[in-house]
Amino acid sequence: MNFKLILNIALHLLQARLKQTVVAAVGVTFSIAMFISLVSFMNGLNDLLDGLMLNRTPHILLYNEIKPSENQPITLSETYNNTSNFIHSIKPKDIGKSIYNSKSIINYLKKDSRIIDVAPKITTPVFFNSGTIEISGVINGIDIQAEEKLFKFSDYIIDGKIADLSENNSIIIGKGLADKMLLVKGDFIKITSSKGNLASLKIVGISQIGIADIDNAMSYTSLATAQKILGEPTKYITDIQIKLYDMVSAPTVAKEFHNKFNLDTIDYQTANSQFETGSTVRTIISYAVGCVLLIVAGFGIYNILNMMIYEKMDSIAILKATGFSGSDVKWIFISLSIIIGLSGGLFGLLFGYIFSSIIDVIPFETAALPTVKTYPINYNPIFYIIGIVFALFTTIIAGLFPALKAIKVDPVEIIRGK
User: Fold this and answer.
1) Contact present, 407 and 326 (Cβ < 8 Å)
2) Residue/partner pairs of 181-190 with CB below 8 Å, 24 or more apart
3) What is the pLDDT of residues 281-319, one digit of tens each?
4) Range of the structural domain that residue 357 is part of
5) Is 128 a domain residue?
6) Structurally, how many domains does the chain consist of?
7) 79 in any annotated domain
8) Does residue 78 form part of some domain?
9) Tens digits of per-residue pLDDT, 124-136?
């Protein structure tokens, strides 16, 4: 089989039907360009939303949770020990939120090769006092350096710096809370802790996560200040936040730490299962729409090649009469579809990148997402590889059926009819 001759014949057939060829190639180009743009945008959106979730969520959280007593009086009785009991007289016991021996646990975790770093935290409910009004909220006492390293907290500070929390009696409050109380950076805010302790803190920054429930109630201070407000010693910690190199292993590692330290644990997948489901659905939709576009382009190529066979019956008959086999004729038409698919696919990748770049610079500013300035785009090369591979696959399949039909052309009947 002379592939060079077959390719030469295929190119001449394309030139003879140049207008239809261009239309088919443009269909593939448009489909690939839309596929690249759509998938890049949808995955960029998923990355943005995942970042909002993952940047503020530890892969594993260690804490103490209030739980009912495991040993009820009736279970201590030999008579009723092995029966189904419905009497629960002992109420849940508050063992305290403090993590016992927290410094030793943190030192152990930092030596674990699976862990990027550990960020201790104190979470406590408070009342923010505005005259005679008390607004309920939460103060997070954080390790400033660890919090910045693991969660990029400074990205959400719209006024001030996270480093200013190192000052004594300083606080960063949410924008919603600041708007309610008409507070700005440099003002002082009075708070009442859950234990009744009063404190006056200087506002050194305003944060905006983009989630109203958080921005209306959440505030941040240093570990030392939070411990001072609660009247607790320096070893007092309520939460240990962990980030892993391999976050997929978070559920397994969380169970391991639960058994080892006898602490309650929760991994990010469990805490954000609904969010991850939404990301998966959006990805499926984007790929499904892209595939439909390519399949529609494949039908266009099929129709054009099918019509070309009917119009070139005499040419096919002459080829067969001059010694070309059915396999040669088949490869001529498959070559036609490959040329259309490859040329259309390459231009599709180019225009897909151009469209993505245009979307990437379109302004997108919203109060809910202060750190986002333009529409998100993901330029992952795998999208372009999938696009060109699927374009070639679709066009080859579209050209295969007309090619199989061309094999069956009988040159004797065609020439006799002429």
Assistant:
1) yes
2) 181/128, 181/130, 181/135, 184/159, 185/159, 185/160, 189/128, 189/129, 190/128, 190/129
3) 777 877 787 777 767 766 766 676 666 666 666 666 666
4) 3-54+275-417
5) yes
6) 2
7) no
8) no
9) 899 998 777 788 8
